[in-house]
Every structure is written in C-alpha cells, then in structure tokens.
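Q: Two folds, back to back.
A: First:
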Amino acid sequence: MKAEIGIIGGTGIYESEAFENVREVEIETPFGKPSDKIFLGEFEGRNVAFIARHGRGHVYSPTNVPYRANIYALKKLGVERVISIAAVGSLKEDIKPLDIVIPDQIYDRTKFRKNTFFEEVVVHIGFAEPFCDEMRNAVFKVLDNLGLEYHKKGTYVCIEGPQFSTKAESNVYRKLGFDIIGMTAIPEAKLAREAEMCYLTIATVTDYDVWKDEPVDVKTILENAAKNEENVKKVLKELIPLIPEERECECKDALKFAITTNPEMISENIKEKLGIFLSKYL
C-alpha cells in the first residue's frame, strides 16, 4: 500500500477511530531503520502513513532520532505531504501553553545532526521558506472552523537538546525575536525539502520555557502534551480531507536546479542509493 500523506508525531494520534484499516509495515532504508514501524491507514479515501518520531516508548532523544531513515521511508511509501506534530515552548507572553502555532520560519541551533541525504552528491536546495504555504493555508481554515487558539506565524528556534535552555539562552532567543523553541524541526524540515515533500509543522505549546521564571519540568510538559493531543486529533480529522491532491507549490520541484554534481561523476551505487530522489533528474 502506498500513502500520500505522512504524519510524524506521537503514537496517540494513530489511535483515532477516524482512521480505518490501520496496519503496521517495516521499511528498510540506506540510512538505517526508522524510529519505529510505520502505521498505514485510510481516512475518507486518503491513504495516510504515521510514524512515531521518538519511537513507541519514547526511546530516541532529539539528537538521535533517525530523521533520514524516517523521511526516506515515507518517500518510499509515496508520501508527498508531511504533517509534523511538535511540542514546543513559548518565548512570547501572548503565545500561551495549550495554544497552537503554525510556524513560517526556522532558526537552526543544532550541532550534531546529519541534515542532508546528499553526502556523495552536491545538492543546494532553496530553503528560504521552510514550510509549505499550501499546507499552511489548509490548516488555517481548519483551526478557524474549530475555534482553537492559534498563531498564524512564528519563528521556531531548534536547539540540540536534550537539555532545556538556560535562562540566559532563553532570554537571548527572546531578544532575537524568536517565538517558539523546540528540538525536532531540524533536520526534519530540510530532509523533507530534499525529498521534494511539502512540510507543515503543527506546534503545540506546552510551557513558557524558562525566561518567565516558572519551572519547566517534564511532568508539566507531558500533562500539557496530553491535553494538546486531543486538539491535534480534531485538527487532523478536518485537515486531511482539505489537503489538495494536486500540488501547485514549489516543494515538488525542489531538486530541479539544485544538483550541481556532474551526472557522469555519480556512481551506480550512489544512483541506486539515492535514485528515489534523483531518478527524474539524471
């Protein structure tokens, strides 16, 4: 079975009664195993793939998530649109815990992550607008209809983790104008663009980070994440049918002028490994 829409997030969203014929599959990739088996399900005629970013049981820290394997596996299944569900902290007073943010920008503060599929081929993708506007416009309609508290834009600063920020770091991020803080948007968004997938993040706010002089602890974050999960389920039920089947965005052609390595210099082994991305251009 192929899938056209991929969802990356926590396992709770896969248990929704709205999805039919849910089953698990294992996908092999040149970049190792994905975080977990992938769930495939049907919703109103749309085939959807789900993967737990941190694995069931939350076994991968943000640094060690096999991001490349996850995106490759979704690509192999035929996924063209990716919805990322991400818990974040707020860096602004008016972005409150339990709000939803649909970010339009990312600032990368990670240090140790593989952020490209193309280590043997030189590829320079455009990444000025990291999130797909077609997907963002679709989710705005859903959030308006549901009457949920949300913010139409914001800059997501992605830190390495797994530690939370110091107060000094949190206040610097605020002064730089960042809106939310998390640990998983990078390299996920970059890899999705390299895979010519549309990428959307639905960021659910769990806390105010440490700038507000309030304690940030895992217990509070998990409690708020559970509350946010119910809203995410509602959003997905409304959003999936609204996602256009035909893509008019630039995401689908991200590699068109990005490959600078001479095709004659690309070995057959590399073509076999990366053909899922490069075949239409070589």
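A: Second:
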Amino acid sequence: MNKSLLAIGAAMLCVMMGSCSLFQKNVRTEAQLPSDRHSVEAGSTRKPYRSQKLEQGEIGGDWLIEKVFGQVAKGQDTPYLKFEPSTHMVYGSNGCNTVNATYKNNAADSTLSFDNMITTMRLCAEEGLSETAINEALDMTARYTWALNSGRYTLQFYNAAGEPIMTLARQDFDFLNGTWGVAEIDGQKIDNDEMQLVLDIDEMKIHGNTGCNVLNGSIVTDMAVQGSISFQNMATTRMMCPDINQETALLVALEAAAQVRPVDKNTVELLNAHGDVVLRLVREN
C-alpha cells in the first residue's frame, strides 16, 4: 500500500483515538466533491463527456462502482468515481467518505494508476462493503479494460498480477438526443404533429410543445439505477387549447416517468415506477 493510503489509515485511527494530527485538517479542507455532484442534472458548465470517448482511450465522466474484489459494492452512500480528463483528477465516494486522487491512463497499453489519494474521515455505520476495500482496490489498480453492452459501458480494473479487483458502470443516454414525436400516451395512439419533445442530454434539458403550449424542464438521472430518468421543474405557457385533456395526459405522463427503455434506434419508451409504459416516442431527427 502506498504512503497516501497509510496516511489515511493513520488519520482515521486518530479520529477514533481522539488525537488527530495536521493530516486530518488537510483532508477535511482538500477532499471535496466536484461542483456538479449534488445531482446528475442540468447546471454543469463543464463540457459534457461522451461515453464514446472511452473508445478513443479517454476515461472521464461519472461511473458507478458495482463490485470490489468480487463483492457487490454497497455502502451508506452510493459508491462512485467521477473522472475529469482535463485535470486528471478523480472525485468520488467509497460508500462513506469522499475520495480525491489524480489518475493516469494509457490506452496503448491499458495501464491505469491512482496517486495523491486523500479522503474525508466521516465515521459511518457499517453497511455493505467496507470503504477500506474500495481504497485498497484503487491503490492496487494497474490496468483496465472496457466493454459496451446494450448501451451500457463498463470498466474493469486489474491489479499488477492481472486479477480483476473493481467493476464500474456508466449509463449512456446519448441515444435520447434529438427531436421526438409523441406516438402513444398510456397506450393511446396520438395523432398530433405539433406534439413534440426535444431532449438535450448535453444540457440535461427538455423542451417541446404539448400540441398547444410550449414546454420546458430539466432531465434528472440516477446513475445507481439502470435507465433511471425523470423530468423536473416543468413549466408551460398558458394558451387555451382545443384539446386540453391530451395536453394534460402528456404532462402527467412526463411527471410519472421513472425509466427510459430504447426499443430501437428510432423508438423509446418511458415507464413509470411500476414498469408501465406511459409514453412511446418516435424519433423525428
């Protein structure tokens, strides 16, 4: 284990013993979340990281930690890592405490390493996988591989001996970018060319027309839940509409949406929390 992790262990021990050193102060001051971590939604001014960049050798964006040393990674909080290629910084959570580190990766030989690791020292209830295991796995990481399956990217970290030590996953919502016509609401076919939704995944915004009024809102996802999506802060203009019931049905369906499911490259379905299809959208461009 490198010196940074040994220092973390000593600092955590000092919290329990009540005799913390200067290291504790530095950790509390320096270890921080990225500015857009509060929720994966609109508001980030950073250039979006597209998952396809992984195929070009660039690791970036938010990744859910799924397994560590073969065990499901669960903690008091959702374990994740956020890579920022422009600064080669990684932020995240080990299931309890915030983790900061620098990272280097080389696509040519698939090497990956973490250094300068620091964490906060919040005492958390024992729940699921120990946070220590995640710290240890990051310290041991030497190589990586990636895979794409059904629109879902995965990263696999290995130690120097070639043994798999950590699995991470990233959801790719880029397939939603574009203009969509509303084909069905709650199983009822819609024949209204004016009813359109524009989904902007880069900005995590939804725009469109209810068939009468202009619609705006934000898109929110939860990386811990496969296909999770919801629409919030919805607002519309207030023109009197000849078919107000159809407009209301669209707004209710958008508010109920909890998951997105691609049918094919030109069709997607939005499902509610019970798994019922509330909207069927067809790509227009």
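Q: And?
A: The first strand starts at residue 61 and ends at 68.
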